[in-house]
C-alpha cells in the first residue's frame, strides 16, 4: 500500500487500521461491507449468465413448432431452474450486494452493524446454489415443477426434491440474516444529523424491503418444509387423499410470493430515485410522497396474494376482495411514476448510461404495470392466467424493472467503487442493444398469451409459430448483448480512465459523492459533517 | 464530462411499433381454428370475442382495461418524451430547482387514478358475479384431469370417455420425429374423442383431477378453471345457439412432462344432433366392461 502524507489527524487514524488480509483469506473471512458487496455482485453476475443460459435453451426449443432439442421433462426443468436461479441467484443477491456497498456509505456509517453475520449471509449462497444446480446430475434430473413448486406435482420428482428444498432453506436463511443486518444498520448506525427523512431513497427502499424479507421468507420456509414432511414423514398438509389441501400450499406460497416480487423491485425504485435527479440536475420531486408511496406498496403487498390464484376456485367474495386490493396497488405505484416524471420535467437532462437505463425503466416498467392492471381484472384474468400474457408481464417488471435498475445502479456507482470511469460508448451500446432486443423478445409474448398459448409448454400449435420465432430471435440477441456488461466492468477495473475528484457525475448528490474515488477500504471512520449531509439532502 | 447523445430514431421506432401493436390489438382474433395450419400467426394479436355471453363480457372488460392503459400511457409517456426532447442540457435547458414538491398535485394524481380504478372495477365485479352464477344448468358434465388427458362424464346419461391427444399429433411431437407440424391437422390441439355439447344450453362443468393440478381452458368460451385433486370446482358456459362449431383449448396448469400435450376439443352441435350423438354413445358404451354407472 502506498504511503500517504500524514497531514491531518483523521487521515492518520484512517490508515492505522487499514491493513486487510491478503489472498484468499480476504474473501473467505471478509467482514468489510465493500468486499462482501463485491462478492455478492460477482456471484449474482455468474448466476445471471447461468439462468440466462437456461433461457437461451428454452427460446431455442421454442424457436419453431415441433420438438427439436430437449425432452419435455428437461424443458420443464429448464423453466423451473431458470426461474429459481434468476430470482434467488441473480436479482436478490445483486440487491444485497448494492445494499452492502452503498447503505453504510450513504448513511455515514463505517460498516454494516453485524459484519460477521454479513460474511455468513454471503457464503451460504454458493453452497446453496451448488446444491440446487447439482440436481441436474441426479436420477430424474433437476426439479421440474416450476419455480412455484406446487404440490402434488413437485412431489413427483425424486432425488432432486430434497436438494431443492434444502437449497431454498439455505437461500432463505441468507436473506433473513442479511435483512436483519440492513435494518439494524439503518436504525442504529446513521451518522449524527442523518435523520430518517434525510436518507437517500435507496436506503429507505432497502429499509422497507428488509422488513418484507424478514416477514415473508420464514413463510416460504414453512411452505417448503410442509412439502418435505409430506414427502418423507407421512404428513398430509397438501395431500388430498390424507385430508390435506393442495390449494393451501398456494395460499402460503403466494403470501410469501407476492411480497417477494416487491422485494425484487423496491430497491430498484430507490436506485432510480437517485439516478433521475442526478442526471436531471434537480432534486427528486416529492421526496416524502415517495417514502409514503413505498411504504403503502409494501403494506398492500401483504393483502393481494390470491391474485396469483384466481382460477383455483376461490369464492366470489375472495375474488372481489383480491381484485380490489390488487387494483389499489396501482395508485402508489402510479404516484411514483408521476414523481419521477416530474423530476425530469424542467430539468437539465443528460443521457449517460445510468440515465439511459433509468429512462428505459420508466417506460418499460410502466408497460409492465399496465399489463399487471389488466391481469387484476378477474374475468379477463381467466383468459390470461397461465398464458404467455403473464410471462410477458412479469418479464417487463423483472427484467426492464429490476434488472435494468440493477445495471443502472452499477453504471452509476462503478466509478465510486473502482476510481475509474468505464467505456461510456460501449455501455451506451450495451444499453441500446438491451433495450431494443428486450422488447423484441418479450412484447410479442403479450400477443401469444392473448391468442391462447399457455405457458410452460415445450411445443405449440402452428398458429403461434410466427411470434415465437420473433421472440426467440430477440432472446438470442438480448442474451448475447449481456456479455458486454461484465466486459465493460472488467475493462474498467483493468484500464479505465481515473476519475478526478469525488463526484463522477456532475449532478450526483449524496454522502457517497463526498468520499474519494475509489472509496477508501474503511470509509466514514470519522462521521460526515453536517455540511456534507446537507449537500445530499436538498429537499 | 462525456455526454451521450440520445438518438431520436430508436425512440421513434419504439413508439411506432407500440402504436402498430395497439392498432392491431384493437381488432379481435378471428375464430381461427376453422382453418388449418395455414392461418397466419402474425394477425393473432388479441383475445377472441368468443361464442358465449361470458366470453363476450370478458372481451369487453379486457378491451376497456386496455384502452384505459393506452390513454394513461399516451399522457404519461407524452410528458416523458416532451421532457427528453425539450428539457435536455444539450438544448440549453436550465434546471428549475424550485420544482421540488407540490402537495396539491400529489393529491390530484392520487385521486384521479382512484376514480379511474373505481370505474374499471364496476364492470369487472359485475363480470365476476355473472361468471359465478351457475344455477339452473340444463346439463352437467364431469371433467377429470389426469396425466395426460381429460376424462368426460355426462352426469346421469351413461356416457363417459377419455379424450387424449390424437395419434397424428402424438407421433409428430416426438423429439426429432421428422414429421412437420404443419402437415398435421390442428397440431397439438386435436384429440381422439372430442367433448360434444349442445348449443343454446346452459352447461355446468364439475372439474376435478386424480393426480396433480391441471386446468381446463377453452378461450372461445371465456372460461378457465383449475382441476385440483380433492376438489370439485364448478364452471358454466352456454354456446350461442347460432354458433355451432369446433372450439379448442389447452391444459393451463403445469402438470408434468405431458402438460403441453393434453388439449381440449369441444364440438358444439345443434340440440337435435346432440341428442342423437348421446344415444349412440350410450349404446356404444353399454357393453364395455368395468364402466361404473354414473351417479
Task: State the major sheet of chain A.
Answer: 2 strands, antiparallel
> In angstroms, what separates the terminal alpha carbons of chain B?
81 Å
Taken in chain order, the helices and strands of chain B follow as HHHEEEHEEEEEEEH
User: Largest sheet of chain A, order of strands side by side?
Assistant: 1-2
Number of helices of chain A: 17
Proportion of residues in helical segments of chain B: 25-40%
Largest interface by residue count?
A: A-B, 110 and 115 residues
Shape of chain B: elongated
What kind of sheet is the major sheet of chain B? 5 strands, mixed
What class do helices, strands and sheet pairing of chain A give?
Answer: mainly alpha
Count every beta strand of chain B, where a strand is a DSSP E run of 2 or more residues.
Answer: 10
Helix content range of the residues of chain A, please? 55-70%
C-alpha Rg of chain B, in Å? 26 Å
Average per-residue pLDDT of chain B, rounded, comes to 89
Poorly predicted parts of chain B:
1-9, 29-38
How many strands appear in the DSSP assignment of chain A? 2
Task: Walk me through what this model shows.
The complex is a heterodimer of chains A (539) and B (295). Helix content of chain A is 67%, strand content 1%. Chain A is mostly helical and 539 residues long. A two-stranded antiparallel ribbon of chain A has the order 1-2. In chain A, helix 8 (246-280) packs parallel to helix 10. Residues 1-16 of chain A have low confidence and may be disordered. Chain B is 35% helix and 20% strand. In chain B, the strands form 2 sheets. A 5-stranded mixed sheet of chain B has the order 3-2-1-5-8. Chain B is elongated, with a radius of gyration of 26 Å.
